Amino acid sequence: GEVCTMINKKYSEFLPSMQSAEELVAQVERLAGSIDVLRARIESEVQRDLNVAVAEFTELKQQLERDTLVLSILKKLQEFDTAIKEYNAALLEKKYVVAAQQLEKVIMPSQAHARMGFELKILKALGTELTVQTQNMLYHLGEEWQRLVVWKLPPSKASSSLESVLASELHLCTVPSEEEIAGPPVASVLQAFAVLGELHTKLKAFGHLLLKHILKPLVSYSSLWPLVEEQSEVVVLRFKSEEPTLDNTSPVEVFEKIKQILEFLHKYLLNVPLECVDDKKECKVILSELLGDMIWEELSDCLIQNCLVNSIPTNSSKLEQYIEVIKSTEEFEKALKNMQFLKGDTTNLLKYARNVNSHFANKKCQDVIVAARKLMTSEIHNTVKISPDSSVVLPRLPDPGAGDHLEMEKTSKVLHNEIVILENESKLSQHTFSLPTCRISSSVEELMDLAYQTLLEATASTDQCCIQLFYSVRNIFQLFYDVVPTYHRENLQKLPQLAAIHHNNCMYIAHHLLTLGHQFRYRLTSILCDGTATFVDMVPGFRRLGMECFLAQMRVQKGEILERLSSARNFSNMDDEENYCAANKAIRQVLHQLKRLGKVWQDVLPVNVYCKAMGTLLNTALTEIVTRITALEDISAKDADRLYSLCRTMVEEGPQVFTPLPEEDKNKKYQEEVPLYVQKWMTFKELMIILQANLQEIVDQWADGKGPLAAEFSPIEVKSLIRALFQNTERRAAALAKIK
Question: Residues in domain Centromere/kinetochore protein zw10 middle (predicted)?
Answer without folding.
Answer: 141-376
